[in-house]
Design goal:
Layout (H helix, E strand, L loop, with lengths): L1 H7 L4 H41 L1 H29 L3 E2 L5 H17 L5 E5 L6 E5 L5 E6 H6 L2 H16 L2 H27 L12 H45 L2 H14 L24 H4 L5 H9 L2
Parallel strand pairs: 2-4
Antiparallel strand pairs: 1-2, 3-4
């Protein structure tokens, strides 16, 4: 997206629009490449652990993957909404009804099914979208965002979240989160099995040398993989956030609304929402300030996002 900023000062509107669509395609490609890297790490772990502990481990791992993946796919959005304390909009609250109206109008403009609208009781300004597809999607915003933004700014934020729905980011984020979670589970399982003396095929004379090499590689993977895939997940999230900013600005045809909302969030949010790092990547801006933000940042810097939007 940096090329958009450069082009804004020296190109005409049609040329800028061409660059805009090129950057959207580039972000999508990079996101899938990063997701592919997480999948390769997961595949390598399952293969190595199966070689060491036999087909029994592979069978257990396969069942674990299926159950975990299906549970997250079908019920992950409900778990996130419940965990964040999100509730349906109140029909008696004018501000909440305005939010629901914005969701309805932007869904119509984007030619998408209308997501369910939820509100989170919190003074911090934030929002997120969740669900497995546009037909089963939800958009939630905090009461802080609802009361502190004007309609143009609110439309900008909702358009950003609607773009996550339309770009299938909600499904993409779920798939990546499942793989990252499985890497963490398998790593923990492998390290615990070694801690409690489950040796597998390491003592077999047949192929013992190769098994020992695989065991050493497995130990390294079990220790390093959770950190590697978290870094990759953060990079994927940053790409999808830039994509949603661009798509949301295109949906409203008014990038300044989203840029102004980001400016208010930058100046007012304290980063004190009580949200697990496991779901922080879903939010419009990072809900929690942490000492690990420089390593695991799930969102691009707000100043960068504002500059890119104002260059469109």
């Amino acid at each position: 997206m940096t090329s958009v900023l450069k082009m804004a000062e020296q190109t005409s509107a049609p040329e800028l629009r061409t660059d805009f669509y090129r950057e959207i395609s580039s972000n999508k490609r990079k996101s899938w490449l990063l997701a592919g890297l997480v999948f390769l790490v997961l595949f390598a772990m399952v293969y190595i652990f199966a070689q060491i502990y036999g087909m029994g481990f592979l069978a257990i791992g396969g069942i674990l993957i299926i159950v975990y993946s299906l549970g997250t796919y079908f019920y992950g959005d409900k778990m996130v909404l419940s965990y964040t304390g999100a509730r349906p909009v109140s029909e008696s609250n004018a501000k909440e009804l305005q939010f629901k109206n914005v969701v309805e109008n932007l869904a119509f403009a984007a030619r998408l099914p209308e997501p369910r609208a939820y509100v989170i009781q919190n003074e911090e300004m934030n929002a997120f979208a969740t669900g497995r597809d546009p037909q089963h999607s939800s958009i939630a915003i905090t009461t802080g965002l609802l009361t502190k933004l004007n309609r143009d700014e609110l439309e900008g934020v909702v358009a950003h979240e609607m773009s996550h729905v339309g770009n299938y980011d909600i499904r993409f984020a779920t798939v990546v989160a499942v793989m990252v979670g499985l890497v963490a589970i398998l790593s923990d399982m492998f390290l615990r099995m070694n801690l409690y003396g489950v040796r597998g095929n390491r003592d077999n004379s047949r192929g013992g040398g190769l098994i020992m090499v695989l065991w050493i590689v497995g130990i390294l993977l079990a220790i390093l993989s959770p950190f590697i895939v978290r870094i990759v997940q953060s990079a994927v999230s940053r790409k999808r956030e830039l994509l949603a900013d661009a798509s949301g600005a295109h949906l409203t045809r008014y990038p300044e609304g989203l840029a102004s909302a980001l400016e208010k969030i930058k100046n007012n949010n304290k980063g004190t929402m009580k949200v697990s790092e496991a779901v922080s990547h879903l939010f419009f801006t990072d809900p929690v300030k942490s000492s690990l933000d420089s390593l695991f940042a799930t969102h691009p810097p707000i100043d960068e996002r504002i500059k890119l939007l104002r260059a469109m």
